[in-house]
From TrEMBL:
Domain of life where this protein originates: Bacteria
One Pfam short name: WYL
WYL domain: residues covered: 748-810
Transmembrane segments annotated in the record for this chain: none
Keywords: DNA-binding
Stretches the record annotates as Disordered: 723-742
The Helicase XPB/Ssl2 N-terminal domain, residue ranges: 526-648
InterPro entries noted in UniProt: WYL_dom (IPR026881), XPB/Ssl2_N (IPR032830)
MF terms (GO), sorted A to Z: DNA binding
Name of the protein in its database record: DNA-binding protein
Coiled coil (UniProt feature): none
Organism whose genome encodes this protein: Streptomyces silvensis
Length: 818
């Protein structure tokens, strides 16, 4: 029997909750909040819808799911003892009661279970999803009860089963089913019955006991099967199909609903231990490499990167080229490209011939301190939903997923990354986890759905790899600056990661402060070698690095970068407006070693020839004061494709454009320079192509956004006020059916309102707003004039004015609302 104050429905159970419990419910299940329910009855109805219940069940940990599954196969309502028996079985393990109490608290807090302390009820939709039926077993592997499996069986067949089981015949089928159920749930009598079973029959039961509980039989089953069927230990569900009743299976299982009880989360174990200082230094080195890689990528695309595919994204060929340019595997190239895009440093330019290029935010990002630049990237990675690991896979329409293309957003990615780092943070400093133990813990915390691809496991695998690439971890262990950054991922109010010069939050600042001392100081010098190379023993300051990149070609990268000087690289510097004396002065100022003589000769030799020939538009022409040089050009067979002809002793013309002519003569060993229409030498400078201002891509939310405390408090007040309006005792209007909005004529409505103004009483009204949405409210009228009523609205907890023509009717309250 239920106690007098036991709730009779989920809505009543919610009415008994305090505001803190209501806030916790709406925070755990934010889908219940959109739009804000009118009252607690509507909230309870919404909490029982299939989509909401499925979403809530999927977000439970494995043991809480097991408790819900056990409730689905328990009698309704279930006592604590019955539930404990299903969860723990005959041999109760240590700590199960505490774990069960926590799980019940979670289920009650999320409105999946309601009822008194010893009358637990699973919400109907959850029971329908988890309970076994004659056609489908439950997730526990249990089948239907004896009563469910025998529904529709002929009375004669029911009596024969009772007799074969050694029970006395009954006067009707209902009492026969009850007698058979009592036998199967009595441990002693059931054990005695099974002692009589042939060994082959026991073997059949052992194969069905943990599910699936269904089996196939022929029209003439073997003797050991016939023995089970005759006694109801196997019951027919369809022609040729039998099922093991739930009561029989529970006896064979020792009372447990699940084969393996997972009451405790599997621990994350350390695979290796390192000194924290080694971890931090390794992670800092990787962070430096991450910055250098992103800068190299954006510098490579500085004058306009690869074309955008018609369907969006980067072609496979361009991704391969990017991987070669960055000297990384293609999956890593996809990660760096996606990271730059997520941080707002890279976007499509939006031109007719659309290409990828750096954004204006890239220039702002370059001016930031090194550690803060890294924080921008790490924050963008932690919060972004773009998933580079999917590149090269297939979407639901069997189309290849391309880098920077559509279809790469996975809303669960930020939560998985944050949780993976959180698990690493639980280990001692310097401990690198065993990857499989991390996966096992994640699967326990959020079990994959039946038949679903385990996306979370793949996201966790990618998160561990990407954290190492980015320098959040070092040697697999979480670094000190990674621990500081983790708070940024937990702060839902942190600024957008790609917001140019905006801040990254207090956690990001702490991470930058911890990382800064570990990063190498930029140098202002190089070491010049006699073999026409320069060695940068560390990262260079930006002005020096930019100038050296024009004057020399990068030959190798690593701890030290090697630059090589060539005639082409020197000519590139001269084309950019530098003179030979400028280059000599630059090298002398920034080299810790004397400038080698071969390098000085190379610069002087290229400068002496530079600009000796002039290129213009004729379509194009060549002019030179030295007729011998022009004769040499005309005699060279390599210039036949240029179709040069002499216009004057010192001028040659060609139908080719100036750029083609310039490159052609350079390939023949000459060093021409371009000139303007006025005859001035054209200085060609590097052109940085930028997109229009672009914002970083917004992460795709995983369901409705999490409400803040202000919204939750306001929602709870609104729901309670609406519940007051719907449940307040009232004198029903004669024309209103129970539970419906009151219906009164305009004259009756006006008269009742005016009377309430004089008496100060509260009224119950039905109201339809401008959008046609109907609601019921409790108001205390203050003034009625001009077709409007001004009243204190108990539902909204404020004074409002309502048009009288939108009031459907009015009724007096039996008692003053509290």
């Amino acid at each position: 029997m239920s106690t007098p104050d036991a709730p009779r429905s989920l809505a009543e159970a919610l009415r008994a909750c305090d505001d803190a419990a209501m806030v916790a419910l709406l925070r755990a299940r934010p889908d219940l909040l959109t739009p804000v329910p009118n009252d607690l009855t509507q909230l309870a109805t919404r909490a029982g819808t299939r989509a909401s219940v499925v979403r809530a069940l999927e977000r439970l940990d494995r043991f809480t799911q097991q408790v819900a599954e056990a409730l689905a196969v328990a009698p309704e309502p279930a006592t604590y003892g019955e539930l404990l028996g299903l969860v723990a079985g005959d041999d109760e393990p240590d700590g199960v009661r505490d774990a069960l109490d926590r799980a019940l608290g979670t289920l009650r807090g999320q409105a999946l279970v309601w009822g008194g302390d010893d009358r637990f009820r699973l919400v109907r939709t959850a029971r329908e999803l988890l309970a076994p039926t004659p056609q489908r077993p439950s997730p526990t592997g249990l089948g239907p009860t004896v009563g469910e499996a025998m529904a529709g069986m002929s009375p004669g067949r029911v009596q024969s089963l009772v007799t074969a089981a050694g029970l006395a015949a009954t006067h009707d089928a209902v009492s026969a089913v009850e007698a058979l159920t009592a036998l199967f749930t009595d441990r002693k009598r059931m054990a005695a019955l099974l002692d009589e079973a042939p060994p082959e029959s026991v073997e059949v039961l052992s194969r069905l006991v943990w599910g699936p509980p269904y089996g196939q039989v022929t029209a003439e089953p073997a003797a050991h099967l016939r023995w089970l069927i005759d006694r109801g230990l196997l019951l027919p569900t369809a022609p040729g199909t039998v099922v093991l009743p739930r009561e029989v299976a529970l006896h064979l299982r020792g009372g447990r609903a699940h084969h393996v009880l997972e009451a405790v989360a599997p621990p994350v174990v350390a695979a290796r231990d390192h000194r924290p200082q080694v971890v931090d230094n390794t992670a800092a080195g990787q962070a430096h490499m991450a910055l250098a890689t992103v800068e190299e990528l954006l510098k490579d695309w500085d004058e306009g990167g690869p074309a955008v595919l018609r369907a969006g994204g980067l072609s496979v060929r361009d991704l391969k080229r990017t991987a070669v340019a960055l000297d990384v595997p293609e999956p890593q190239a996809a990660f760096w490209v996606e990271l730059a895009y997520s941080a707002g440093l890279l976007a499509a330019d939006g031109e007719a011939d659309e290409r990828y290029a750096a954004t204006p935010a890239y220039d702002t990002w370059q001016e930031l301190p090194v550690a803060e630049r890294w924080t921008r990237l790490a924050t963008a990675w932690l919060a972004g939903t773009r998933t580079a690991g999917l590149v090269g896979g297939r979407d639901s329409k069997d189309r290849t997923l391309s880098a920077l293309g559509p279809g790469l957003d996975r809303s669960a990615a930020p939560e998985v990354r944050t949780r993976v780092l959180g698990l690493l943070a639980e280990l001692p400093g310097g401990a690198a986890p065993d990857a499989e133990s991390v996966q096992a813990r994640l699967r326990w915390e959020r079990p994959p759905g039946t038949g679903a691809s385990d996306l979370r496991s793949r996201l966790a695998h990618w998160a561990l790899e990407e954290a190492e690439l980015l320098g959040v971890t070092g040697r697999g262990a979480l670094s000190a600056h990674g621990r500081a950054l983790l708070a940024e991922g937990l702060d839902q109010h942190s600024p957008s990661p790609g917001s140019g010069g905006a801040g990254t939050g207090a956690a990001g600042e702490r991470a930058a402060r911890l990382l800064a001392p570990l990063l190498p100081e930029p140098l202002d010098h190089v070491l010049l070698q006699a073999d026409l190379t320069a060695v940068a023993p560390g990262p260079l300051r930006r002005p020096l690095a930019d100038a050296l990149a024009v004057l020399a070609d990068i030959e190798s990268k690593g701890g030290a970068t090697v630059y090589r000087f060539t005639p082409g690289s020197v000519r590139r510097a001269l084309d950019a407006g530098q003179s030979a004396s400028d280059l000599h002065a630059f090298l002398t100022a920034h080299s810790r070693t004397p400038v080698p003589q071969p390098l000085s000769y190379l610069i002087d030799d290229v400068a002496r020839k530079h600009g000796h020939l002039r290129i213009g538009a004729a379509s194009a022409y060549v002019r030179c004061d030295d007729e011998g040089v022009l004769n040499e050009i005309l005699a060279d067979r390599r210039g036949e494709g240029l179709r040069l002809r002499r216009l004057a002793p010192t001028v040659l013309a060609t139908p080719a454009d100036p750029a083609t002519l310039l490159e052609g003569l350079r390939s023949m060993g000459f060093a021409p320079s371009a000139e303007s229409a006025e005859g001035d030498v054209l200085i060609t400078r590097a052109h940085s192509h930028r997109t229009p201002p672009r914002t970083a891509p917004e992460p795709v939310p995983d369901g409705p956004p999490l409400p803040d405390a202000t919204l939750l408090g306001a929602a709870v007040r609104a729901i309670r006020a609406g519940d007051l309006a719907s449940t307040a005792p009232r004198k029903e209007a004669p024309t209103a059916a129970p539970g419906e909005l009151p219906r009164t004529t305009a004259a009756e409505t006006l008269a009742t309102m005016q009377a309430a103004v004089l008496t100060g009483e509260a009224l119950w009204i039905g109201y339809v707003n401008a959008e046609g949405a109907a609601s019921q409210r409790v108001i205390a009228p203050v003034r009625v004039e001009g077709g409007f009523v001004t009243a204190y609205d108990h539902t909204a907890d404020e004074v409002r004015t309502y048009p009288l023509h939108r009031v459907t009717g009015v009724a007096e309250l039996a008692d003053e609302p509290g």
